[in-house]
């Protein structure tokens, strides 16, 4: 059993990381922004004793020393998984994303260095956004952990999507630079997921507060996307359950230290998601885009980049779920929110 701090426990991905940590016998302190969110997570795990699941309130990861109290737990922490970071495409100003992403990441590393001397491993959730060159991707390119997004500060200001990509790239760079400069007692592992799909297990009361990557499934089932399938964006996905396991294996496996992990299941397109929903849930078929309305969500005609997930399969030992399983389970998990009633 390892004593782990998980940041952003109320999030889509973190909720799965928490499930895996608890199922594998670890003891977890998770940070959330409010007591209400802590109470909701507590209610979802009635079988877990307080000494294996407790909470620390961190309202804003962008504040200096935000994690100082959260990391000083008794018994002391042995590992940290940092998932908290804003993920949306409606920032008015790039700084809304850049500051919490970068300060949150460097902040947790500094707090661990100062106040949690027994921590041996910190795992940070980065993104394919920190790998992918969105400005020059070609069908010949095969992405792996060796690649870095070349996005600049100037490009971060061009669009909310660029602001998000830059936030992930600069935050991950800052984490590796911290390790290089400070040579702390812990090692760093970074998880770089592409689009994350699959069932929600975090506590939501409304489809309006759904995490960004699940929104395309909501919009297809609700019929909002009937006249225009949303563009796919990046054409790689991973299931959130495999991603949860990847984070925990990155804590457990000594060989994961000092490495990035590009955790990819396969290619996908929004047009394929629509097709799977139509086949598996024929009652919603009439709401799905067809013909020309499907085209924006299809693969580009000149092909799409490849990926190499060898390291995640060989060092972490992950076997990735296929797209159909992720979509079927995502839709089932979203129906109780009334996504088919809009
Ligand atoms: P969610 O929006 O569901 O989770 C984000 C979490 O970060 C929430 O717990 C949120 O708290 C917390 N958070 C955001 N800003 C702050 C802040 N200023 N102070 C404190 N907490 C904050 O998104 P995901 O679960 O999808 O994302 C989790 C991580 O995975 C992020 O780092 C994201 O960049 C990364 N990622 C996600 C991908 C995806 O497709 N989903 C793909 C690649 C990477 P609250 O909900 O209370 O606001």
Automatic annotation (TrEMBL):
Keywords: Oxidoreductase
This protein's record includes keyword NAD: no
Superkingdom: Eukaryota
GO MF term set: oxidoreductase activity, acting on the CH-OH group of donors, NAD or NADP as acceptor
Gene3D superfamilies in UniProt: NAD(P)-binding Rossmann-like Domain (3.40.50.720)
Domain NAD-dependent epimerase/dehydratase residues, every copy: 4-259
The family this protein is said to belong to: Belongs to the NAD(P)-dependent epimerase/dehydratase family. Dihydroflavonol-4-reductase subfamily.
Record protein name field: NAD-dependent epimerase/dehydratase domain-containing protein
Organism: Penicillium arizonense
